[in-house]
Write a structure and sequence with these properties.
alpha/beta, seven-stranded parallel sheet, Rossmann fold
């Protein structure tokens, strides 16, 4: 078996981590049990480019249980859990190409290795696999039945490809499923971002002015958690609706250039480039902390920060680099500008990834069962999959809900009865 991990001897620790995560993933466990019995993915060759974590391990185990021949590579150089990667190889026989801290050359070599598998289904966290297929491995396009996309950033990229007529395969926006973005993005990112910042810095949030760039579901989650820890939260946005929502949720809203003057901690969660740039760094307080939780390491203009620094002290703490500016002030960059919740912490809790990955697995099954029916565009996940996953999650939490009576169903379906 071909693979590239740091050290397969790390496998015992990784297996414990995978098994611990599986305890809090009951919905995915039910999907795995059915997949083992029915083998709906039999004959499918899959390449997945995802964060190589214990939660992801349970997803790829589920795909393999369903009969898929699956290969995994990393979607982020700093998010890989080396022991988990090793366990997938040694204990579960799943080829993995991922090493924590790998350089860009190795990162793209691993993506190429995953595509050497000649997949019929791909799974992405940021659209790097799909992008590589369209740019460098076009010969794979005719055989690909579809791709699953896990992130907001990836969906944005893919819709841009569709709009430009560049997309040549069907893609399902798993990120847009309610059981993904309403929970994974808000509660998962909210908690894990806070966790990563605290692990990296050991700061006290209470009393700090925390600037949240972007008020999408990830931004809402982090702002909510920071406020709960006693921080004074400022939101920066470009969308008037989201800005209004943030203001009505009790947060200060202002342009980044104003927030830069008062913030103690800055976190970008937008999916866009250069959200924090040179003009912002120059007016920040001494000791300001800057980090990103919006996927790629482009949201903070690191090159501009380097250009105005007279000195860079790497790793003053784990995942903390100090930039000393010409004015004598210091700015601290966390996790090299990459996803702080995965660079310095363990990503989302298994409980919330349970829904996201169950939705991933079931959407994969849906694509295979309906192969040939989809054009080269971005599709939403079928509502029945969303509803089924939510219902199972409620059941696993011991929660029951009401159902409509026949009278209520008739009333809602009728136009003849007035108010």
């Amino acid at each position: 078996m071909n693979y590239d991990v740091k050290d397969v001897n790390l496998a015992p620790g990784g297996k414990k981590r995978i098994e611990w995560a599986s305890n809090d993933m009951p919905v995915l466990a039910q999907v795995m049990a059915r997949f083992e019995e029915e083998k709906p993915l039999m004959g499918t060759k899959m390449s997945a480019c995802l964060h190589v974590t214990a939660e992801t391990a349970n997803l790829v185990r589920t795909l393999k249980a369903g009969g898929a021949d699956v290969v995994l590579c990393a979607s982020n150089p700093l998010s890989t859990q080396d022991d988990v990667a090793s366990s997938l190889v040694k204990d579960y026989g799943i080829p993995v190409f991922a090493i924590k801290g790998e350089d860009n050359k190795t990162y793209y070599k691993h993506i190429s290795s995953a595509l050497d598998h000649k997949p019929t289904i791909t799974m992405d966290d940021g659209a790097d696999l799909v992008s590589a297929i369209h740019k460098e491995r076009k010969e794979l396009i005719p055989q690909i039945l579809g791709s699953m996309e896990e992130t907001t950033t990836g969906v944005i990229r893919l819709k841009a490809m569709e709009r430009d007529g560049a997309l040549k395969i069907p893609v399902f926006a798993v990120n847009n499923a309610d059981t993904k973005h309403l929970f994974d993005n808000r509660y998962g990112t909210g908690q894990s971002t806070l966790d990563g910042i605290i692990r990296a810095t050991d700061i006290l949030f209470a009393g700090k002015t925390v600037v949240v760039a972007g008020y999408g579901w990830c931004g809402k989650g982090f702002a909510m958690r920071a406020k709960g820890m006693g921080a004074n939260v400022v939101v920066t946005e470009i969308n008037p609706i989201k800005s209004l929502e943030a203001a009505m949720d009790g947060f200060l809203v202002m342009p980044m250039i104003e927030a830069a003057k008062i913030g103690d901690l800055f976190c970008t969660l937008t999916g866009n480039v250069s959200v924090i740039g040179k003009e912002h760094f120059e007016v920040m307080k001494n000791g300001a902390i800057v980090c990103n939780s919006g996927h790629f390491n482009v949201e903070i203009d690191i090159k501009s920060l380097e250009s105005i620094a007279t000195k860079v002290n790497k790793s003053v703490r784990n995942f903390v680099d100090q930039y000393v500016l010409k004015n004598g002030k210091s700015i601290y960059l966390l996790g090299e500008g990459r996803l702080i919740n995965l660079a310095a912490a363990e990503g989302h809790p298994a409980c919330v990834m349970d829904m996201s990955f169950a939705t991933q697995a079931l959407t994969t099954e849906y694509v295979i069962k309906n192969k040939g029916k989809f054009g080269s565009k971005v599709y939403d996940v079928p509502k029945e999959i969303d509803q089924w996953v939510a219902s199972l999650k409620l059941k696993s939490m011991g929660i029951t809900i009401d159902t409509l009576t026949k009278e209520q169903e008739k009333y809602l379906a009728s136009w003849e009865e007035g108010t």
